Amino acid sequence: MKGITKRWVINTFGVILLILLVLLIAFSMVVQSLYYNGIKQTLSGRSGELTGIFGYSTGFMETARQYVESFPDKELMELVVINSNGVPVINSTGFTPDREQYMPDYQEALDNENHCADWCGRLNSGEKVMSLTRVVTDNDGQPLGAIRYIVSLEEADRKIFVAISFVCLAGILIMFFIFISSTYFLRSIVRPVREIGDTARKIARGDFNARINKFYDDEIGDLCDTINYMAGELGTADKMKNEFISSVSHELRTPLTAIKGWAETMQMDGFNDKRTLEKGIGIIIKETERLGGIVEEVLDFSRIQQDRMVLIMDRVDILAELDESIYMQKERASKENKHIIYEAPEMLPPVIGDRNRLRQVFINIIDNALKYSSSDGVVNITVENIADKIIITIADNGCGIAAADLPKVKQKFYKANQTVRGSGIGLAVADEIVKLHRGELDIDSTEGVGTTVSITIPVIPENPAKESETA
User: Fold this and answer.
1) How many whole angstroms from its chain centre is CA 285?
2) Where are the alpha helices (DSSP H) in 48-138?
3) Cα dist. 206→112, 176, 233, 234, 296 in Å?
4) Inside any domain, residue 238
5) pLDDT tens digits, 127-182
6) Domain carrying residue 322
7) Residues 318 and 440 placed together within one structural domain of the fold
8) 244 and 379 belong to one structural domain
9) Nearest Cα to Cα of residue 398 among 370, 418, 430
10) Number of folded domains that form the chain
């Protein structure tokens, strides 16, 4: 017995048991008090008769003998007549009174103002009794003798025992039903928790297909749903990670293959074609730049994941950076028979940003627009200044993004189209860079129609001193 079950037994079952024990003790004391007080009141009522009986008599012993002989409740209680010397002389049972019997109630009655006292104890015979003694005095207050009433408590104790036993039995039944119901309740918690633990260990070992059976539609059921959802998300993330590794490996292998191939070609004996040499060197330089770009993209992603990306913030002419980004992509668009349409506005207010990172975002978005556009495709780029924000919109008429993929395209490693080159982290990096500029990157797309990406960057406020110069 361990875990939740042990804690429940100690904390709950133990507390309930303690409460029942306290109630049982209190009940026992109350029942005993009720029985004993009832007997005491009966004895007190009987002793009250003595005032009228002995008030008009002249001989105590004669009157006491007559009282004992005519006493109607001899079967219920025993009467003992005590003389003025404190010696028992008459017993209602007909036997000689036990003169060795300890009588503390008689001694106490002699000292009391009301000349009456009671006592609970055991007789010399071992029987448990309650006694009450009333001292009879003359007109001067001198004791003439006493009448002692004695009632056996054996029957009262037996009734008290029966009542307490009944209550104990009821308590045992209550504890039994509590134990049965609680055991069922605990099993309804422990069994799912154990299965959750087993499934969690499977997930930790990489089994993302492991699922928990939902037992109940409550908090435990919600936890099962959450863990099942987590397993699904981890499985998806693991799949995307593997695809990312595969994609990056392919992206790295392609330029490396080209570089190695041309390097081996130029190393061959007898190779002296100047034009081919220049072409090979150009390809090597181009593929090296491409390789460096892939590595830098991965490093950027790592910096973002570890919150280590540092931006060099300054006043930036965002039009100049956008113009340069478009210029860098125009030659590629021309070679692929694609068109970039862009009309620059005359002037825009400056923004606070990192010019290199902003240019990286623009290049990435324009590169994606060209990548997913077919031959003769068109990429429209517009810039607006609305409400102290610059909004750059890059729209293409390419293949578009499926509605199911659209909410996930900015997630790390996610690629909606596996047939197109790319690592799957470019948009995630671009989105983080825009967020670091306190901007927004929004994507709207319709499959088969095209995609529109909006980049919103706040302009420098009227009081630029409030802006942070570094991030």
Assistant:
1) 58
2) 50-54, 60-70, 104-111
3) 90, 44, 13, 9, 30
4) yes
5) 999 999 999 888 777 888 999 999 999 999 999 999 999 999 998 898 888 888 87
6) 314-466
7) yes
8) no
9) 370
10) 3
